[in-house]
Amino acid sequence: MSRPVRDARRRIENEHPDIVAGISHCADHVAEPWDTARTTDSDAVSKRLQSALEATGLLEQLPLVLADVVAAMGYELRAQPVPAPPYVVVTSRGPILRATIEPGRLVVRFDAFEVVRDDDLEQPPAYRRRDGIRLDISLR
């Protein structure tokens, strides 16, 4: 793990634990009505998660987290991020923050759901709620 990626992870863990906890709470809300531990409806996962993040005000805060993380890494954003693509995208795994900075493309994933694939390739992938949030940060 590179130093800028470590700095980004440390910044989120130390300065934004409420955001991570809020994303986790929203993901719990998304998974609550499922009859089983998983669903194959990726659109329902991403749309319900987006709605929950909007309702709690977290979606509006994610660009601020991105700007703070980039600053903690010692870089600057080329533009002010907004809570929409390309900076913030809500997927069936969870929210993703993206920015192009001097050394490359920064991607911060808050994985709230994991993809579960069946041995039968004809079956669609399923989405299962993770235990907490898995933070994945890359700089390419």
From TrEMBL:
Question: What sequence ranges are listed for the domain DUF7988?
Answer: 7-140
Top-rank taxon of the source lineage equals Archaea
Spell out the protein name for this chain: DUF7988 domain-containing protein
Q: Which organism does this record belong to?
A: Natronorubrum bangense JCM 10635
